[in-house]
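Late entry, written up from scratch paper. The run itself happened at the end of the previous shift, but nothing got recorded in the book at the time, so transcribing now.
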Amino acid sequence: MNNVTKSETPIGKISLLIDQVKEYCTEKQVELFCQGAIQKPVGGLIRNTKYKIPFEESAIQDEKDPLLFRFDKEDRFGKYVEHFMGAYYMLDPSSASISYFLKDLLPPHFICMDLCSAPGGKSISLAMRRDDGIFLCNDISFSRANEIGKNAQRLGLDNLLTMSLDSQKIELPGLFDLVLLDTPCSGSGMFRKEPKMLEDYSIEKMMRLLPLQESLLEKAYDLTASGGYLCYSTCSLSVKEDEEQIDKFLKKHPDMFEIKVDKFDTMVEGEYGYHFLPGIFSGEGIYFCLLRKKGTKKRSFTPLIEKKETRVDGRRVFQIKKGTYLVREMFQEWKDLPFLAPGLKYLDDSPYQKCKYDHAASKLLSSVPKLPVTREQAISYASGNEVILKEKQDGLIILTYQGIPLGFGKAVQNRVKNYLPKGLREMVI
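Output as recorded:
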């Protein structure tokens, strides 16, 4: 092998991963993990609780989590018109399961900070379980943060605010009932799903990431309110990135303590926290640990919107440079944060948009008449075509399929002009 060490080869790297798993698994669990490592990855989706719609037979509902469905990765769930409309969000079953354990712990009208959010799966899956929460989703990558906003618009989630800041520069100490920290890591739990991650994996890379993880944990601690929760997670199998980070953190902060959950039989409990592992759990390798800060939360807020305000359909309207947004009442609790999107966009300022309403507004507006369409018509609309009606109708409408808003159109006689923005049009099935 010339100058290449055994640990640098794919087989050697897999051996290292097995050695890491042995630190918190029984012999039988290690055997199951090895079997899972050579199996095909499993697809996952979480149903949007805003909408009621049946799934294809090939999507199997989780026995414990009624919102989680699994399917063969070769199935084309991302191409269905239901996905286009926001009936569900696709993510790894292990990641989706973390929100399952968080949903019943949080107080009414909680506030969450997701520090390294993109693509936003953990916040999105929790937001669909808890509609009363507000989520500040931040990612240092501007392009990736924008993707979170796009997902929120598609799903009709008006309780996600997106930002793109260096996490260390966020100064909102003690504000959040929940801080999610899915920290940058070696990615060793995802090698089955993403073979390139196995190619890039090295012990050296992992060691370089440890100081960053520690630093982000300190910022998460600063943002967590007294009595609030901190959820630390990685897609790593390494004890150094998982249990050892938590151990050091708890020794430094005696006012933090671990919260145990009623775990699934298919989860593996470590010294701190829990592991989802291929072959044992039907998903990829994910670790999470739930912590709580002692004390009682106290809040002090500055209004976001002045007393002179505009309302649409009973909702507040908030303007930033990027447009006009319909916002939650709780959005008034922050001022001067550089939001990329503070909710669902209401008005489109583009001179090329045929309709003054932004596409996302179709998910919220009750004042515009609704027009139910067939599946065939919904598929045709998604690709940018006119919709032919059996009866005459005139004026601005919102087309719906199975109760889910598709978007705006203008009815003229028995035809509906398609107001779906060209950038959103796609071929669906």
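The chain has two domains: 10-293, 363-429.
(Scratch paper discarded after transcription.)
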